[in-house]
Amino acid sequence: MAAQKPDKEEVRVQVDGRTLTISNLHKVLYPRTGFTKGEVLNYYAQVSPVLLPLLKDRCVTRIRWPHGVQESSFFEKNTPAGTPSWVHTAKVPTTGSRAQSSSARSSGDTLVFPIVDDLATLTWLANLAALELHVHQWTVGRNGQPRNADRLVIDLDPGEPAGLHECCQVALLVRAKLADRGLDTRPVTSGSKGLHLYADLPKRLPSDESTALAKEVAEELQGEHSKLVTATMTKARRGGKVFLDWSQNAGSKTTISPYSLRGRERPAVATPVTWAEVEEGADDPLGLEQFSPEQVLGRVADLGDVFTAVD
């Protein structure tokens, strides 16, 4: 009998008391750098102490690349066939939402999301090549029902030739606007081109109200800094400007979770950073860059969880 190829191997592992079958550990998911599925699993296992608290009670939409980032990907909202019975889930109504079912597990007007509240569930998803983990700005309650938004997010998306340098400059403006409204802001590199800014809400708000608040800030800055900032979604009008995407606060929309991998050409991570780093990036075009998984694990070892720390 011919020996099995290494990338077809399956191993059974114990994670948090759960038995999981892990496959294709040697499969390259990022061909540009040779980053393998085993390295993806290792990253998520090591970063889990700071990632899992940020996923707690949040429905997770995944983007999966079964054959690597050079091939096609797909969004997955519902739990797929074969989901272990121990995975916690939440049934979310789709009424009035633009969310669409991505599998037959939905029942008419309901989506069944996984809740990633332990390392076993995180490992199970990583084994499915769910590289990106996206979450809403609201959580589910003990009854499994969606609650109002507990935080606000603004996505700073630069239009060429603007880049992360310009995003850092605009991030300081957004921070000041939110501070005027009594909100403390936390920056996260997107792992792609820009920055995400988060602010905890002093009280939960319906998603349309938090969306209106983010839009108000974006439009104020567009009016005051029209050469640098746009609040308009039309891509043709973003050239050389930073688009402040306020719409990700809508109840049906999601944003990449801090500490999640991105499915780009090279492995990168949505990485919490300090305001000192953002200020350096605003002064120096090379002052802040996107971070690799190895860099993020080093940062966590040295700095702890920057996202929840007081800067």
Describe the protein's architecture and organization:
By secondary structure, the chain is of the alpha+beta class. The protein is built from 6 helices and 19 strands. The chain has 2 domains: 138 residues, DNA primase, PRIM domain (Alpha-Beta Complex), CATH 3.90.920; 145 residues, Alpha-Beta Plaits (2-Layer Sandwich), CATH 3.30.70.3300. A hairpin with a 2-residue loop joins β1 and β2. α1 crosses α6 and α3 crosses α5. The longest helix has 19 residues.
Strand and helix map with partners:
Elements: E1 10-15, E2 18-23, E3 28-30, E4 35-36, H1 37-55, E5 60-64, E6 74-76, E7 89-93, E8 110-114, H2 119-127, E9 130-135, E10 138-140, E11 146-158, H3 164-180, E12 185-189, E13 195-205, H4 207-224, E14 229-230, E15 242-245, E16 255-256, E17 261-262, E18 268-269, E19 271-272, H5 275-283, H6 293-303
Parallel strand pairs: 14-15
Antiparallel strand pairs: 1-2, 3-4, 5-6, 5-9, 7-8, 9-16, 10-11, 11-13, 11-15, 12-13, 12-19, 17-18
Residues in β-strands, percent: 25-35%
CATH topology of the largest domain: Alpha-Beta Plaits
CATH architecture of the largest domain: 2-Layer Sandwich
How many individual helices?
6
Which class of secondary structure composition applies to the elements? alpha+beta
The proportion of residues forming helix, as a percent range, comes to 25-40%
Using the coordinates above, name the CATH class of the largest domain: Alpha Beta
- Report the order of strands and helices: EEEEHEEEEHEEEHEEHEEEEEEHH
Shape: globular
Q: What is the first-to-last residue Cα distance? A: 60 Å
Give the rounded overall mean pLDDT: 92
Number of domains: 2
